[in-house]
Amino acid sequence: MGGRGNSKKSGSSNQSQQQRINEHIEEEYSRFKGVDVSIDVEDEQFIQIMEKNYQIYDIKRITKKSLNNKPLPVLRA
């Protein structure tokens, strides 16, 4: 009959998929687009302002590897 969820393999597969989804959720982050590339995200004053005023931590600049790590106007936090 082959209905959905009728075999043990299907249940184990669902658990595996749920685990992958949970791992992805834990790695979730925010992106901020349109940020001028002249902003130094490693500047201590910038870091303090972002943490104090916006509770944003661990900010990274996104780069384009195919263009020799050219900085893009996108931040990840």
TrEMBL record:
InterPro entries: YehR-like_sf (IPR036699)
Name of this chain's protein: Uncharacterized protein
Region (Disordered): 1-25
Organism, scientific name: Brachionus calyciflorus
Biased composition (Low complexity): 8-20
